[in-house]
Design a protein that fits this description.
- With 385 residues, the chain is an alpha+beta fold.
- It has 10 helices and 15 strands.
- The protein has 3 domains: 131 residues, no CATH class; 138 residues, C8orf32 fold, CATH 3.10.620; 86 residues.
């Protein structure tokens, strides 16, 4: 597994299924600033040559480092007949992050409707409630990468600028940018819009789409080229849970806020996870929000309400904020139980890590007379088998 991806100037990490070791090979120009996260743990085990910065969890210089990597998320099979809600915690879980607004009346009403649709014996079953909520979101909330109001405006522009079933993509984009003050009068921006319109026209088969679907697809594609479109979410709590419910649409942030707010009203502890979604090599993807809910007796379980993933949550495609920079990161190698690579490369890496651990262990033993790194060395030796 390639552990690190780079997005938006920051480094993200794909967490392994089980506790693992992360080997970092620093050059003189490399630097690492670890981000603390309560849901997973990356802790330094030992290092050789690498220096620590003035601030905790900041490292730089030429040398090698070993980290332990683990997570508190449950990632196994769930027996849906045995899950339950810890009722005494339900009120406490209404503490909110920004934009969640669990105490909104419409969100509480939705939670009541979802609960009442279930058979009586499932109304305290956290699995049944979560799955029903996900199904409701799938059926009733439209995923849009920009606000639906913007898509509707583009739909109007399409109707005004199209003639004989031919859509003038440039005019549509131009008028949309003018309406939303995206500096569309700038000559450089205008040239960019012309180039984009040519790319869009060749990549979208508008003959098979309604004006609304064409507008939505146009905004989806344009969003990748023009990040300023994200500013169109900034007004009127557009990413909040209650606005997502009111508009029956939203992007991943709004949909996750909605899921978390309703889950809390159902008595299921939930919170928002922020990270990166893409393939394991990081060749595509973008910033993404999903959720984590306490499904007793299993603990915290990750859920993606935007893509309706629950027990099939794909953590290989969901990465977690790891370092505040992505420009000067060292080379990393995950050492995990199910890793697959050339045996000679694996043996060489195991030998390197074991030597580093043994050297640190010997110094520590002389000073304190205790055993150190026993479990890590045993883990590395188990990989050979």
């Amino acid at each position: 597994m390639e552990p690190i991806v780079k997005y938006d100037g920051k480094g993200y990490i794909f967490l392994p299924k089980e506790p693992a070791l992360l080997y970092a090979d620093f050059s003189v120009r490399d630097a690492l600033d670890l981000v603390r996260d309560p849901n997973y743990s990356i802790e330094k085990i030992t290092s050789n040559g690498v220096k620590e910065g003035l601030f905790a969890r900041s490292y730089f210089g030429k040398g090698q480092m070993i980290f332990s990597v683990s997570t508190d998320f449950y990632r196994g099979e769930i027996d849906k007949t045995k899950t339950f809600i810890v009722k005494e915690n339900s009120v406490k879980n209404l503490e909110d992050a920004i934009y969640t607004h669990s105490n909104n009346e419409s969100l509480a009403d939705l939670a009541s409707d979802i609960k009442n649709k279930l058979p009586a014996h499932d109304r305290d079953n956290s699995y049944a409630l979560t799955q029903t909520l996900l199904d409701w979101i799938k059926e009733n909330i439209e995923y849009t990468i920009v606000p639906k109001s913007l898509i509707l405006d583009v739909e109007k522009n399409i109707a005004l600028t199209s003639k004989n079933d031919i859509i003038n993509v440039y005019k549509v984009i131009k008028s949309t940018f003018a309406n939303y003050n995206f500096n569309s009068t700038d000559a450089i921006v205008d040239d960019t819009l012309k180039e984009l319109s040519n790319e869009m026209r060749s990549s979208i088969d508008f003959k098979e789409l309604t004006n609304y679907k064409f507008a939505k697809e146009l905004m989806n594609q344009l969003n990748y080229f023009w990040p300023n479109l994200q500013s169109s979410w900034d007004n009127d709590n557009a990413l909040s849970a209650y606005k997502t419910l009111e508009n029956k649409s939203g992007k991943c942030t709004g949909i996750t806020n909605l899921f978390v707010a309703v889950s809390k009203n159902l008595g299921i502890p939930s919170s928002i996870m922020r990270g990166y979604a893409g393939d394991k090599l990081g060749s595509y993807g973008r910033g993404h929000d999903w959720a984590v809910s306490k499904i007793e007796p299993y603990g915290w379980v990750e859920i993606d309400p935007t893509w309706h993933q629950f027990t099939n949550f794909d953590h290989i495609s969901h990465a977690y904020l790891f370092s505040v920079n992505s420009n000067d990161l060292p080379q990393f190698t995950f050492m995990e139980k199910d890793m697959k690579c050339d045996k000679k490369i694996l043996d060489r890496r195991i030998k390197t890590l074991t030597t580093l651990l043994e050297a640190d262990k010997n110094i520590f033993n002389k000073l304190f007379g205790t055993k150190k790194h026993k479990s890590e060395i045993e883990f590395l030796q188990s990989l050979k088998k």
